[in-house]
Target: Thrombospondin type-1 domain-containing protein 7B-like
Amino acid sequence: MKKGLIVLAFFLLHASDLESRTSPPFVWKTGHWGRCIGDCGSGGVQSRVVWCVHSEGWTTHHSNCEQSDRPECQRSCFKICDWHLELFEWEVSEWSICILVPFAHGEIKPRTSECVTAQHGLQHRTVQCVQKLNRTVVSKEICGYFTPQPSMEQACLIPCPRDCVVSEFSAWSECSKHCGKSIQHRTRFIIAPPLYGGSKCPNLTESRICEVSMSCPHEEEEYSYSLKVGPWSKCRLPHLKELNMVGRTILDFSSDSIERSTFKLEMVENLQHSHKFRSHYSSRAWDIEIGYQTRQVRCTRNDGKNAILSLCMQEAIPLTFRSCIMPKDCQTSGWSSWSSCSKTCYSGDLSPGFRSRRRIIKHEALGAGRECPETEEREACNTDGGEKQLQPCPRYTIPLHFSCFTRVDLQVPLVQ
Model:
């Protein structure tokens, strides 16, 4: 047993020593990129310090590191100058629909008990830096050089949740049978659907067993009953008398104000999360309308015939009414003109350039409306590399003072 442990320890020490020999003792380190210097525009150059260090942390001559792994120490950059202020600007989209502030675990739950006049919400919008000439998106650093970036979020108010309102129950129906097991039921109807995250409508039917002590004759057949649930109808608007329950409330906090009855619908849902990010987003908010859907729920006997719903009340009755967002298709603008080709000179390779065109989303899709198509198209241009159509690319010689810096700590011995 002891002999086996000694052999295992020797093997582990040998493996550790072998690993330390095979791992490179020298690695490259890089500093931060410096300021963009050179001519205004895309002809700028950035440099950074690159040095070689031992695995123990001390600096050594760069020849000790693997030259093929050496990081880049220069790159092209966009040199921002004061006159660029006339060429670039911030582009912002319309504010999104006001949504409730998320609570714990990301759930959207209105604080019904605390809500007096309105609930706190948030609105978002997209912000990007573009060229004024062709609306091409560029780095935000360019616009940020001149003016601060506009805010992408702001607080807003959402009307308090409105719970579903139902009528009182009707009187109990007559017992379904004069003997044996018998059921009677009562119903109520929806006066106003729930809005702004209010509580859902309760069951619209109730049933109870009749107290009938008389037993049925043997010749009367007993049936079994089951529920049949149909599909939801299309979303449709409520009747005129219900329209005043639907929409965005204009709030007036003055002392003599009454909550006005001018309503346009707010949607308590973040539409931007349901659509992927679009590079040229300029969507405006719809006036959203809340409708309702219904479906048929019926009770059938085992012989296929319909029966009164109360005979199926032993089961949980599915909802027959729910609110929905009236569908609206996505709307986009027409295509913009094609951009210029990204390849403007011939450099000896056969790689093509690319050009693109864009369209703007005017309105996002709502409900079951048709989803938005792609907002950008790209296609190849100068597919032969530009050998026949383009002029040769100019060649530049970068002066020595633009070359990469090599950091060497002279206070430690260099490894030869």
User: Anything to note?
Assistant: Confidence is low (pLDDT under 50) at residues 103-112, 241-283, 396-403, 408-416. The radius of gyration is 36 Å. Helices lie at 2-22, 140-144. Residues 97 and 123 are 6 Å apart (CA to CA).
